[in-house]
Amino acid sequence: MRLLFPLFLIIPVIEMILLIKVGEWIGVMPTIILVFSTAIIGVTLLRRQGLSTLLRANKKMEQGQVPAEEMVEGMLLAIGGVMLIVPGFFTDFLGLLCLIPLTRRALARRCIKNGIFVQPGMSGSFTSTTSSFRRADEDIIDGEFRRDDQDQIEKK
Q1: Helical H segments across 27-88, by residue range
Q2: Checking CA distances to 52, which of 21, 28, 96, 120 falls within 20 to 30 Å?
Q3: Domain boundaries of the chain, sorted by first residue
Q4: Contact between residue 53 and residue 77 where contact means Cβ atoms under 8 Å apart
């Protein structure tokens, strides 16, 4: 949390400096076109990569596994998509890192390893087993039941 406030101050300054420098280098109109182009490219990449990640997560769930990496990748896709929509070259660069599959998977693995996306109060990791969700010390009794009061209601 202490890092958020300085980021909200530093990132816009970096963006303004980069926009001015790129505008001086290639001109105003090409800079504006480039900013809009990166937003369009970002939305297109987000759609494709989002669907791919969703399909991989679905496949893991069908196999009885928790799709931890895919969930973190989904969060990175959302963050990357927002960064690409925000005008500026620095956020576009960070957004592309979140959208390119190779770098996104590496970031996702690092986030899981470091526990970055763990909810406060939770412990453990995203890993799961394919065993059932019952305690080992519980006794299982197989049988049938019948409600007697239901039979009495039907007789009346």
Answers
A1: 28-62, 68-85
A2: 120
A3: 27-117
A4: yes
